[in-house]
Amino acid sequence: MALLLYVDDMLLTGSDSALLQDLLDCLNKRFSMKDLGKPQYFLGVEIESYEGGLFLHQQAYAKDILHKASMSDCSPMPTPLPLQLDELNSEPFEEPTYFRSLAGKLQYLTITRPDIQFAVNFICQRMHLPTVSDFKLLKRILRYIKGTINLGLHIKKDRELVLHAYCDSDYAGCKETRRSTSGFCTMLGSNLISWSAKRQQTVSKSSTEAEYRALTASAQEITWLSFLLRDLGIEQRQATVLKCDNLSAVYLSTNPALYNRSKHFDTDYHYVREQVALGLIETQHVSAAYQLADIFTKSLPKKEFFDLRGKLGVAGPPTLSLRGNVSVISSPAQDTETQDFVSPRKPSRERKKATKQSIDVGAKEEKMLCFNRFEFLSNGEDNQASDSCAGQDKAPDC
């Protein structure tokens, strides 16, 4: 059984319904409570259950942000940020409080929208002194949300509750401070349960150091999630696989002979090396084409962005089929009436064929009538000619 409490909102779940009911009865004796049934709305997150799992979204909250920004009717954009982020205007923005308010609201939207995590983090780094260019980037994020307002996070049913993670970094990605950006995402089976995009605290001297710092952040998240899952009864029997696209960082986590080259980040080295030595984490190399954490470290082209967004489980609401959901079953009498009503109507092909046949029959009848009339007139003229010859006996021509 698990209980999630925030001020006066509570979410309760468990595998024993009798135990849940006993807890609710005990709480009702002490507090004034109301059972709302299955969760549908919790702290701004809308929950829709379907046959394949759960669909979490914040569509109402996103509409409220667009309304407060006066961008409810803005033109949508395909991606949150442009590819080039270094050409920024240094002119200060006139209303920094308004900028911080919108940026703070977008942070809460990332609970169900990991696709905007890097963009929101990039904007929040400029909250202390925003510029006009920063506000334009903020408006672009809002325009992207406008075009994808129905997207959310799918939590699908999965029997293999195995924890694994991806980590990546953008070496010296910040043009102002030359700090790198660390990004990671943690999966439980096929479901995304944790993600992050954060600028590193210090400047990395090499790409290996930047990747290794991302490994450390991912290892810390894996350790915490492993303890949490163990308390929930989902114990990880094997080492958690942590995938990284930097071979030097992967070799460094398993080969202590390279320690002389890593003294400048020995704290991170010792933490990850210890987790690997204890058998809690296993580092593996993954190709950059299959690196899911790439979406949390940099701005991507449209095709790659859409691909990674779909792999993370961010998609539209589930399509519910109407077939099989009709509860009213028609009786035999209703079926007979329906058949009687439908039977006079013929298919279009049959109606065309019948119309063509009637036209052909009408043409034949008209042709026969004209032929009979012509034959009648011809016989009448012959009779008149014979009568006139009989009346004139002396006519030489007759």
Automatic annotation (TrEMBL):
Biased composition (Basic residues): 346-355
Record field: compositional bias (Polar residues): 331-341
Domain Reverse transcriptase Ty1/copia-type: 4-81
Region annotation (Disordered) ranges: 331-359
Residue ranges of the TM segments: none
Protein known as: Reverse transcriptase Ty1/copia-type domain-containing protein
Species in which this protein is naturally found: Microthlaspi erraticum
